[in-house]
Request: fold
Amino acid sequence: MHVKAILAAVFAVWMVTAAQAQDGARAYHLLPENTNIISLTMQSVHREIGGSEFDAAVLTPSYRRSIDVLGNAGTFLIGLPVGDLSAELATPIGTINLDNDIAFGDFFVGGSLGLFGSPSLSPMDYAQHKPGWRGSVAAKLFLPTGDYDSSRLLNLGGNRWSLQASLPISYVLGDSMIDPDLTTFEIMPVVQFFGDNDDAFGAASVLSQDPLFGLEGHLTRNFGQAFWGSLDAAIQYGSAITADDVPQGDAQETLALGATLGWTPSPTLAFRVSYEDVVYSNIPDAVSRNFRATTAFRF
Reply:
């Protein structure tokens, strides 16, 4: 099988992890202390690289809890994706269709801690809190627990660890956190580090990936008590691949634009849908689309 096609497939699968690592609009919105959120997120990712097409359909249940850390707002997060991958792989001998069975992805654990403008608040204090500038630090660790077989080209598990670190910063404009006209300006520099895959598919013994640097931005606004919307943008740079210490290409550069719509019909239930499209890539003829839908239960 052509080495460029193999590397394209590896890059596409690794980009699924990067897409899962993106948190989206209001991901680090201030919460009342001791809030529990169980979420179900359905994500559909489509990539076209070098004449090959890759698709991932992933369902991720997760649990988040807000906690008090020395008077500052913090959160704890765990999640486990499950889904499948498929590909139409362009090779010198023609198109090869690949499709994996439904399997588990890599378990992840994470959290955040407020640095400024992020006090831990009771539900009553939260409703009266005057927002403004706030910042926090966040991290998410992906563990190599997912389904992986080096004899298969496509795997939902990465057979390596990865660590995402970010610095979410926002300015919240409104009279209180429950203001029906609440508006937020959000920016989040982020970097994701990747461990080596020492049982790689194909001739290479070890596949490595350089860090992936990114910058997310979101402009959000409430439309009454039940609805809110967001305009989203994300820049990513890096993640060049190395096979047995031999570089396999330049770093990737992308700019993605999208939008999010949220609906909160009750204090215990929330829905959101997001769509993102890569409008610039340094890879010729590359196409990337990402759709995400989340249902969240709060208690």
About this structure: The chain has two helices and 19 strands. Helices lie at 3-21, 123-128.
